[in-house]
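Shift notes (night). Ran Catalase-like while the centrifuge was going.
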Amino acid sequence: MIVFYAVILWLTGAVCAYHDYVNNTLEPAARQLLDFKLEHPKPVGILSTMAGKPVDIRETTTLNNDGLTSNEFFLDDVMHSVAERIPERVVHAKGTGAFGYFEVTHDVSKYTKADVFNGIGKRTPVAVRLSTGLGSKGGNDLAKEIKGFTIKFYTNEGNLDLLGLNVPVYLYTDPSMFTPFVHAFKRNPRTNLFDLTAQWDILTLKPILLHGIFWLYSDYGSPNGYRKMDGFPIHTYELSNKNGDRYYAKFNFRTEQGLENLTTAEAVAISGQDLDYGTRDLYNNIALKNYPSWRIEMDVMTSHDITNVDYNPFDVTRLWKNGTYHTIQIGRLVLDRNPDNFFEAVELSAYNPGNLVPGINSPPDTIFKSRRLAYRDTQNYRLGVNHKRINVNAPKYRKTYNRDGVPSVNENMKDVPNYYPNSFNGPVPFIDESRPNERIIVFDSNAVDLESSSNFYKYILVDEGQKQRFIDNLVLSLVPVVPEVREKALKLLKLVDLELGIRVRAGVTAARARIRDESLMTIHH
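Came back to this:
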């Protein structure tokens, strides 16, 4: 309840540290239009058509004139407004974003030659997008979903995109699971409602999903806004230094605001007041110069370590075992600038796990191979084949033989030869003499392994309060499930952990008994 009342105070302006106005009772997000007026005391220019023709005030109405067909201002408006939406993302559709910088604080040249991570004090501009996993654009920031945490580093060697989640594991290892999982966890094609029976049905048929879903049903599924959650690019990346030595690393982004999660009751209470809680919180704190930051570190194994552990370190559904790696600090990520235009900077942004730089090489797991194909395809569909020429996606440097297609094409490489190889001084490749000449091959297993799910309940949930809230959330999700699927789910939970299975079954039985008694009382009255 403390969190709930704090949010109400914030929303009503009772808590405010913004002193640019005599009347400072509004939060920065609510004052954006007034900010603009104060920064521009006069109109910013003469209104024009899309073609640049100045608009006469009589052309701003179509009443009592022939403006329907001859008024270019009206035609611009009406024909643009019906076409100004682009397809929303299939997953992570609702999100927010900000700009900032990454600063190197530790020497990691032993592990990677990547320019972005070398040179203590070096700063690299970044764009960050934070998002909910499965909801639509108009959804709830605090819905119990896995959250997205993606960073684009504008490095001197090209863009580096690290795509992560607020939890350290992914959901499955087989790329063919993407469509069934998304369909089951999105809306039922007939009812257009989220369907818990479909969700638990696929969980019982594909138990590999359980570990990731367990994180979702715990307190970790409801971070207190985007500033107070960690970020985890889920893959094990191959690193190489200037001598060609190889290392393997998982990157971690640890919030410096303090990791903070909400209970289900707190999330529900806040959502009743503000579906955009995370978006508003991030915007306001940056506007108030309370810049959010994260400590960037990496868990590292050597080439020898990686082939001598008793588990698959490339399995994106499991955690690395304690004692098999060491953690290295790299630097800090700071967000210090809100976008001037959300559509241009966030909606048009495109993050692709295939965007890597020398010294940070492709992870060998099958999920990564699939993602680098799927992300490229979905961005071509959503934004067009030239999406990497859009300002927010454009690298510092680009010389390419790709051109033409749907705008924007910008300078379109002007008169440079448009084929490679050529004899006329078009762009040429370079030779990376320190690039490793060996690659590791990973063979995945289809065997059902419940160890990670069991360890989550036993060791990740560190106290009884976390365990009880986790169990309560599981119970709530199972009560409306059809009996056949619910029984399979309860048996599966018992296989994961005997105590967990017993406690969830007892909770479901008690909950259904209460529903039955309330129904009988209603009928009686």
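The longest strand covers residues 326-337. Residues 1-23 have pLDDT under 50 and may be disordered.
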